[in-house]
Amino acid sequence: MEILNIKNLSFAYPNTAEKAVDDMSFTVNQGDFIVVCGESGCGKTTLLRLIKKELAPDGIKTGEIFYNGILTEDLEDKVSASQIGYVMQNPDAQIVTDKVWHELSFGLENMGVPTNDIRRRVGEMASFFGIQQWFHQKTAELSGGQKQLLNLAAIMVMNPKLLILDEPTAQLDPIAGAEFIGTLQKINKELGLTVILVEHRLEEVFPICDKAMIMEKGKIIIYDNPRIAGRKLRNVDDNHNMLIGLPSSVRIFNSLNVQDECPLTVKEGRDFLSKHFKNDIDSLDVSNRLADDKTETININNIWFRYERNLPDVLRGVNLKAYSGQLLSVLGGNGTGKTTMLSVLSGQNKAYRGNVVISGKKINKYSGSELYRNNLALLPQNPQSVFLKSTVREDFLEITKSMGYNPDEKNHLISSVTEKLGISHLLDKHPYDLSGGEQQKSALAKLLLLKPKIILLDEPTKGIDAHSKEILAEILKELKNNNLTVVMVTHDVEFAAKNSDRCAMFFDGVIISEDEPINFFSNNNFYTTAAVSGGDKMYKSGGKKMYKKGF
């Protein structure tokens, strides 16, 4: 029985000729788990918001969206609010109350549900999601993973029939992300809830979905079983940008000329390789990525920091060094102190003990804007925070003006950076009208216009597709070739493994280990790539070819 039927749906934002959604038609059956993927800006978020009438954007819409046979615009407000749930990408954007239990009961209170029923349903849902331990905590004190789980629970307590999620794991570490996806699978299987999920990290969601929808420029190019979708995409274009975003097992299958069923999980990928190939490679020769002639540009020595005098320390004796021409990736769970370390490193917060030395000079010795002028730049976790003007172009012009570039240099620099990042078509749009991935790329462009020598990146791959990550990787490589220092805080294990010179693990307010990527990831169970987590067979059978392809 179909729960959602979309017929000839098209949508264009105001004053825009290009359609964000272009003549889309598809159905979703009750109990289906649908994964929607595609490059940043292809229309995924717009599609989701059109289904939820309260969040539908302003613009020109044609076509019809039926929920249980009723046009969504004709649904009663109570039905739409309770039966169609929506979880956003940014967990902080959805939380509206100060306490966890307030947040869980907020929707039911607004629906006029009796007090006894609210208590029962809140208690049941808190138990289902394992929220009892932090039931009375302040929402501001929760980690990113807890906030996202709370958002999901606050939606589920309303007893929705359709759950829509827009990249809910984008800000979660690998363990929290896997747990969140596992929870989605549980409520889909045990409660029969229909799920439509937009996601860039496909490794865990592809194996559990009923259908995969691949979008391109507002259109559906594939809508099929995930085992078939990967093969179909290669048939559409064997160089399609989305191919590199598919799970490792699917990419390996597509790169090999073997007639068999496409594997979806690490276990299936390992079994597939065991069946068709023998393992005659015991080790891989991977050259040392580090050079001995690099200059030390960052030295963090025994840094201690807390946000308030009576609060616990967030940083507890952090030591770290970074060098010119190298990319250092810092990984770790949500709430361990990674972003706080960047805030101290960039001068936004001041440590009460220890020293931060930038380019041979203590950070407290820099005066005025000296630290930031052609020296150090930070890309924050929330890209919206870097935009001040009504259009992206105005923002770029403002920053180049403040840097004192002449008109020719200003125009050349903006043109060069935007073309490299593929965002030239976004220049006349309002930054807040962009998708999460487009905002991320535009914020990075603004940072590059500063011509810094040291770049600090906080989750730069959040919300961007696999092809955009390849572009970012090329930019980082070029920056390193120009002897810049890059320090990146990230949850993106695959990106860090492929592009870093060194990786560090942050835990409990301190860096507990640091090593080259091949050593760092090969001995981990969770903070590692999918190919390595599959064991020796999955990693070695593909040999050097797999390593070079980034598997």
Summarize the structure.
With 551 residues, the protein is of the alpha/beta class.
Overview of the molecule:
This protein has 551 residues and is of the alpha/beta class. The protein has 3 domains: 2-245, P-loop containing nucleotide triphosphate hydrolases (Rossmann fold); 296-375 and 452-515, Rossmann fold (3-Layer(aba) Sandwich); 383-451, no CATH class. It has helices spanning 44-51, 77-83, 100-110, 115-128, 144-156, 174-191, 226-236, 248-255, 266-276, 338-345, 392-402, 407-421, 436-448, 466-481, 493-499, 517-522, 530-533, 536-541, 543-548, and strands at residues 2-12, 21-29, 33-38, 60-67, 70-71, 84-87, 162-166, 194-198, 211-216, 219-224, 296-305, 315-323, 327-331, 353-358, 361-362, 376-379, 454-458, 485-489, 502-507, 510-515. The strands form 4 sheets. The protein has a 6-stranded mixed sheet, with helices on both faces.
Write the layout of secondary structure elements.
Blueprint: E1 2-12, E2 21-29, E3 33-38, H1 44-51, E4 60-67, E5 70-71, H2 77-83, E6 84-87, H3 100-110, H4 115-128, H5 144-156, E7 162-166, H6 174-191, E8 194-198, E9 211-216, E10 219-224, H7 226-236, H8 248-255, H9 266-276, E11 296-305, E12 315-323, E13 327-331, H10 338-345, E14 353-358, E15 361-362, E16 376-379, H11 392-402, H12 407-421, H13 436-448, E17 454-458, H14 466-481, E18 485-489, H15 493-499, E19 502-507, E20 510-515, H16 517-522, H17 530-533, H18 536-541, H19 543-548
Parallel strand pairs: 3-8, 3-9, 6-7, 7-8, 13-18, 13-19, 16-17, 17-18
Antiparallel strand pairs: 1-2, 1-4, 4-5, 9-10, 11-12, 11-14, 14-15, 19-20
Helix pairs in contact: 3-4, 3-5, 8-9, 12-13
